[in-house]
Amino acid sequence: MIKIAILGAGAMGSLFGARLAEAGHAVTLLDINDAHLDAIRRFGLRLQTDEADRRVHGMRALRPEQADAIPELLIVFTKSMHTRAAMAGVRHLLGPDTTVLSLQNGLGSVDAICEFVPAQRLLIGVTTWPADLVGPGHVHSHGEGGIRMMSADGVDRPAVAGTVAALERAGLHCTADADVWAAIWEKVAFNAALNPLCAVTGSTVDQLGNIPDGTALALAVVAEVLAVARSQGVAVDAGKVGANVLHAIGHHIGHKPSMLQDILAARRTEIDAINGAVVAAARRSGVPVPCTESLLQLVRLIEARAANGGQGASPLQAH
C-alpha cells in the first residue's frame, strides 16, 4: 500500500482514485468541486464500469488547502491550463520524496510542474481510459484503456517501477515506455481528433461513426498532428493511433469526451493545450494542418459565445 493523492478529482481522477483504493492503496481525492467532494464523503464514490456498478468507500475527499498528509505519489489530472495554479495550491504536500505523475491531456504541463518538483521526481505519460462524471459522486467508465509512462528526464528510476506496479495492481494496464514522448504526441493526435469533433457536433465518440465522414475527418486530423510530431523529431506510430481512434469510435459507446462536457457546461476547454499547441508547433515547422486549425477555431468560437452570455452547449445537442 502506498499513500496516493489525486489532484483533480473529475471523471478521470475519480476513476483512478477509486480503482487504486479498491486495490488497497490509501487514496486522497483533491478537488474544488464541493458538491462532488461532499457526495463522496457521505455516500462513497459510485463507480460504474463494465464489470460492476458499485460504491467505493474509504477515500478521503478534500479541497487542496484542507489536505495535510504528504503523499508518496501525487497524480495530476487537472486541465492543462490550471496546472500551475493547482500545483501552487498543493505546494505544502510536496515532500522531498514525493513522486508526481502527470497523465494530463495536451502539451505544456511538464514545464509547469517542473517549477515545483525536479524532473527526477516527475513521471509523465498518457492514458486512454474513458470516464464520464455523471453527477456529484458518480462516475462511469465503459471500455478498456491503458497507461504508458516514464520519468520526465528519461531515466528508469525505482519510482517508475513502483508506480507501474501500483497502477497495474489496480487493473489500469500500465507499462513503462522509454518512448514516452511518442506516446504523448500520439495521445495529442487522438485527442485533437476526437475531443473537438465531439465538442462542435455534440456527438458522443461512437456517434462520430454514424457516417463515414466523421471517421474520415478524425483520421485526417490524426495524420496532420503526427506530421507535426515527426517535424519535431518524434517517431510516432500512425497505424497505432489510427487503430485507437477506430477502436474508440467503435467501442466507447455513449462516451462524452471532456471537451464536449466542458462545452455543454459552458466551461473553458483544453483546446489551446491540444489543437492550439499543435497549430503553434506546425507554424514553427511549416507543416500544414488545415483540419486541426479549423477545429481549433470552431471550439474557440463556441467558447467565445458562452463567454459573451450565449448558451454553452454545442450546436448539436448530445443525446
From TrEMBL:
Residues 4-149 form the Ketopantoate reductase N-terminal domain. Residues 179-303 form the Ketopantoate reductase C-terminal domain. It is an enzyme of class 1 (oxidoreductase). Pfam families: ApbA (PF02558), ApbA_C (PF08546). Keywords: NADP, Oxidoreductase, Pantothenate biosynthesis. Catalyzes the NADPH-dependent reduction of ketopantoate into pantoic acid. This is 2-dehydropantoate 2-reductase. It comes from Cupriavidus basilensis.
